[in-house]
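Each record in this resource describes a single protein on a pair of labelled lines. An example record follows, reproduced without changes.
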Amino acid sequence: VDEIAGDMRVRGRALRGDDMGWFSVAEGVRPWCPRHRSVRSAPLHEASSPSSSVLRMLDQGELIEAINPPCPDQAAAGQLRLHVRCDRDGMVGFTSLVAKDGMVYLESVPTAD
């Protein structure tokens, strides 16, 4: 097998908007994965709106799986929301990746190869 030096190109979709296209993989670019861990306690909401009823709080260190890729919530100034299923009890709801003040709620957990 011949190896050719050069940029690695991948096709992707923007988290904000419907833009799709090709880009070069650079430092800091990571593949999206559905597994996440709660970095701190965060609310799990019944619906995608952050103003919807809180089902329960995610515990720090709790593992969750994304049902869909993150999507911006227009009512929350484009805050990225994630539809998730909790490993602990199977509860399904919505939570934010990052709070409005920039505090990170979730970190991705890479899958084992």
The chain has no helices and ten strands. The radius of gyration is 16 Å. Strands lie at 9-13, 20-24, 35-38, 42-45, 54-58, 63-66, 71-73, 79-86, 92-96, 106-108.
